[in-house]
Amino acid sequence: MRVLILSHTTGYQLRAFNDAAAMLGIELVFATDRCHKLDDPWQDHAVPVRFHEPSVSLNAIIERHLQRRFDGVVAVGDRPVVLAALAANALGLPWHPVLAALASSDKRRSRAALAAADLPSPRFTVISASAAPNHLGFPVVLKPVGLSGSRGVIRANDEREYAAAFERIRALMSRPEVRASRTGLEDMMLVERYIDGREYAVEGVLTRGSLKVFTVFDKPDPLEGPFFEETIYVTPTAVDPAVLARIVDHVARGAAALGLRHGPIHAECRVTAAGEVFVLEIAGRPIGGLCSRVLSFRAPPSSSTAGLGRSSLEAVLLRHAIGESIDGWEREPEGAAVMMIPIPGRGMLKGLSGEEAARAVHGVTDVRITAKIGQLLETLPEAGSYLGFIFARAATGGDAERAVREAHAKLTFEIAAEITVNR
C-alpha cells in the first residue's frame, strides 16, 4: 500500500509518519514544497510541488501516480490540505472535497459557512491592509486571513489599540517570507468581536461524513489577549459532560457546514461562562508539529495488534487513509499534556540549561528543544514557532499538566539582544 503525504519540507510530523509507515508496512511518497529544478535535494524521492501553483503541482502528482498508484492521501499543515483535495479528486481517492478544503483554510469562508449553518459565531468583517475601519464596537480581535495558529492575532479594546494592532499586523503581512507563500490572502485581515471564555481543541477524523472524536483538549491557560499564545494542551478534558456534548455536536455540525467529509480534523472552540459554544475554526488536517506525540492509542481487543503496545496518531491516520476501519481504536485513557514552550523575549538564542532536570520531573516523558543556538527568536504576534515541547503522562490530566509546568520551571534560556546593523 502506498500513501501520498503532502507537507512542507520543514514539517515536524513527517518523521512520525515515516516511523508509523515502517511499522505498518506502508510505503510513503512525500509531496513537499521544494525547488523543482534540483534533482531530489533531500534524497527522499519526494514529488516537488508548489502550493501556490496547484495545476502544475497536481500534474506532477498525477504523473507519479501513473507510474505506481497511490492508495490513500494525507495532508500535514493548512496549505497542503487544498492540494491534497485536488489530488484526491483527480485520483479518485477519499479525502475532503476541494471547496471544503478551501473553506477550512480561509478564515473568511469558514466564518461565513459557520454563521450560515446557524452555529454561534462572532460578528465579523474582512478588511484590506490599506484601510482600517471598525464598525463592530469593542473589544475585537484582528487576525490575518492567510496565516494560521495565533500568528498575527491581536485583541483591541479601544481605537488606540485597534490602530496599533492594525499597523503591527500590516507590517507582519508585508514581510518577504509571508508574501512569498502566495496564498492570495496576504492583504486581508479579519476583524471579529472578542468572545470571552475558555478554549478547547478537538482532535478527530471524519469517515464519509461521520465524526469520530479522538479527544477534546483543555487549554488551561486563559487566552484573553492582547496576544493568544497557546502553551498547554491537556487530555482528557475536565469540562462538564453536558458542555462536552455541545462541543462535539457543534464541531460535527461545523465540519458538515464547511463540507469536510473524509480525513483528519483539528478544531478550536471557545466556551462562554454560560456554556455557549463558539467554533473558532475547523482545519482539515491533524494537530500540528510535535504536539501529536501527546496522543497514543490502543488497538481494538479483537484486533491482531491488540496488546502490542501504544500506537501513534500518525499510525491510526495511515490506517484510515488506506481504508481500514478505525472504529475500535481509542485514545489511551491516562492523562497526558504537552507544553509548547513559549518564547520569553525577542533576541538570539545563546544557550540553554536545566534540560536534564526537566526530564527528571516525575511524569515527564520527553523534552524536545527545537530552537537552534544562534537562532533569532520572536514573540507573538510575529512568532511562527516555539522553543520546543514538553510531554508528560500521569494518572490524570491535572497531574500531567503539573508535570509539564514543573519541568518548564527548571529550564533557563539565555537570550541575547538582537544585533542590528545601521545603514
Structure summary, number of beta strands:
22
Kindly give the count of domains: 4
What value does the average pLDDT take? Answer: 91
Percent helix, as a range, is 25-40%
| Structure class | alpha+beta
CATH-defined fold name of the largest domain: D-amino Acid Aminotransferase, Chain A, domain 1
Look at the structure and name the CATH superfamily of the largest domain: ATP-grasp fold, B domain
Strand arrangement within the widest β-sheet reads: 3-2-1-4
The helix tally amounts to 11
Query: What is the second-level CATH architecture of the largest domain?
Result: 2-Layer Sandwich
Using only C-alpha atoms, the radius of gyration works out to 21 Å
What characteristic shape results from the CA principal axes? globular
Major sheet details: 4 strands, parallel
Tell me, what is the CATH class of the largest domain?
Alpha Beta
The unreliable regions are: 35-43
Strand content: 25-35%
Fold blueprint:
Layout: E1 2-7, H1 13-24, E2 27-33, E3 47-49, H2 54-67, E4 72-75, H3 78-91, H4 98-104, H5 107-116, E5 124-128, E6 140-144, E7 154-156, H6 159-173, H7 176-179, E8 188-193, E9 198-207, E10 210-218, E11 232-235, H8 241-258, E12 263-271, E13 277-283, E14 296-298, E15 311-312, H9 313-321, E16 330-331, E17 335-341, E18 347-353, H10 355-359, E19 364-369, E20 376-377, E21 388-394, H11 397-409, E22 412-416
